[in-house]
Amino acid sequence: MPILKQVSRAVSQALQSSGCGCGMSIVPVRCIGVSPRQVASDAGFHSVTFAETDHPRVLITGGLGQLGVGLAKLLRKRFGKNNVILSDIRKPADNVFYSGPFIYADILDYKNLREIVVNNRITWLFHYSALLSAVGEANVPLARAVNITGLHNILDIAAEHNLRLFVPSTIGAFGPTSPRDPTPDLCIQRPRTIYGVSKVHAELMGEYYHYRYGLDFRCLRYPGIISADSQPGGGTTDYAVQIFHDAIKTGKFQCNLKPDTRLPMMYIDDCLKATLEVMEAPAEALSMRTYNISAMSFTPEELAQEVQKHIPELEVTYNVDKVRQAIADSWPMNFDDRNARRDWGWKHDYDLPELVTTMFSFLGSDSRIAQAN
User: Fold this and answer.
1) Distance CA 224, CA 5 (A)
2) 3-state class of 60 per DSSP?
3) Within 10 Å of residue 142's Cβ, how many Cβ atoms?
4) Half-sphere exposure (Cβ direction) of 43: Cα atoms closer than 13 Å
5) Over 80: is that where the pLDDT of 81 sits?
6) Residues 69, 63: contact at Cβ < 8 Å?
7) Are the C-beta atoms of 247 and 253 separated by less than 8 Å?
8) Which site in 6, 15, 23, 294 is 20 to 30 Å from 323, CA atoms measured?
9) Is residue 111 a contact partner of residue 28, using CB atoms and an 8 Å limit?
10) What helix, strand, coil percent values describe the chain, rounded to 5?
11) CA angle 264, 267, 272 (to 5 degrees)
C-alpha cells in the first residue's frame, strides 16, 4: 500500500506541473462543448465550419433501413466516398460495409454520438433512426425511446456543433381530423400512432431549435416509399413493396389493406432526390422548415391492376389487418406539396406506370440471376 501511495503522489505531482514548470489544468471533457443542455438561452454558438466551397462531411443514422443505403450511395457520388459515413446498431452486409465508411452508432448513447460528430468533423446529419408505424404500435416504450429520446440527443448535438440537420417526417404525422384530400403543409395534426406522435414532436422540436438556437433544421414529410433493393420494414404502406416480391416469387399476393385505400406514394429515387435538393437549397429560399412532398397517389386495387399488365396471372386477395387499416384510414389520401415545388423547385420523375416498370426491371433481373445460381 505505501508503494501505491507513493506512485499516486508522483503521478499527481507530474500532472500538476510540466517539465518547464508551467502549470497544467485538467479540464473535464463535457465542459469544453456548448449545447442547449448546458448554456443560457441567450448564449451564442461558436463552431468551426467548412467553407461553402468544401464538400460537407455527412453522417447518416439508422443507415441500414430502407433509405439510408441508397442515400449514402447518392451522396458519395456527389461529395466523395469518404465524406459520407453510414451508421447503425446492426452489422452491415458485406456489400454495404465495403462500399464506404461504416461505424456503429447508438442514438441513445449521447456521448458516443458526440464523439462521432467531433472525431469525424461532421457538418451534415441525416437522422433516419426510427421505429415505423406498425412496429411502433407493437412496442410503444421502445418507439418512444428511439423516436423521441434519440431525437433529443440528435438535436442537442446538431445545435452544439452547428450542423445542418435533416429529419424525415411522414404521412403518419397527420390524423383522422386532418384534411385528407388534399392535406396541406399547415393544418391540424392529431396522429393516433406513437410513430405519428413522435414525428409531429420532431417537426415542432426542430422548428423550435431553429428559431431558438439557430439550428439549420430541414424536414420532409415522406409519403409511402417504394424501393426494389430493400425488404418491407413494418410500415403500413409496405404492401406496395411486398406485391412486387410476391408477384415474381409465387404469383399470389394477399393485401392487408382494403382495395380502395388511397394513400400518397413515391419511388425511392424521387425521395432521395428531394432529400438532397432540400438540403442543398439556400436557407433564404425556404419559407418553412417542414414540407410535404408527393409524386402519386393510388389504391391497392389500382396498383394490382398496373402490376397485372406485367404479370397477368397474378392473383390478388384481401385479408384486412384491422390495426393497419385503422392507421391508413387516418392518413392523407393526397399530399398538397405546392410549397416545395415553389420554394426549391421540387419535381418528381416517377408516376405509377414508370414505378411499376422500374420495380420489375430491378426485381426481375435479380430473380433471374437467383434462379440461374
Assistant:
1) 65
2) strand
3) 13
4) 14
5) yes
6) yes
7) yes
8) 294
9) no
10) 45, 15, 40
11) 110
- The rounded distance, in Å, linking the Cα atoms of 117 and 103 is 12
Write down the pLDDT at residue 229. 79
- Give Cα separations from 261 to 19, 223, 254, 264, 303 (angstroms): 76, 14, 15, 10, 11
- Tell me yes or no: is domain 130-371 CATH 3.40.1280.10: no
Task: Yes or no: say if 265 and 295 are a contact pair by the CB < 8 Å rule.
Answer: yes
Cell of 33: 462543448
147-206 residue pLDDT tens: 999 999 999 999 999 999 999 999 999 999 999 999 999 999 999 999 999 999 999 999
* Residue 22 in this model has a pLDDT that exceeds 80: no
What's the rounded Cα separation, in Å, for the pair 129 and 146?
A: 7
Quickly tell me which residue has 440527443 as its cell: 153
Instruction: Please list the residues that pair with 69 across neighbouring strands.
Output: none
Least Cα distance to 170 among 206, 136, 219, 204 occurs for 219
Whether the per-residue pLDDT at 250 is higher than 80: the answer is: yes
User: Three-state DSSP class for 72?
Assistant: helix
* Residue partners of 5: CB distance under 8 A and separation at least 6: none
Pairing of strands 224-226, 263-267: parallel
Assess whether 195 carries a catalytic annotation: yes
Is the pLDDT higher at 323 or at 100? 100
In this prediction, residue 37 has a pLDDT band, given cuts at 50, 70 and 90, of low
Length of the chain equals 373
Pairing label, strands 164-166, 124-127: parallel
* Model confidence pLDDT, tens digit, residues 269-291: 999 999 999 999 999 999 999 99
* Of 195, 209, 213, 350, catalytic: 195
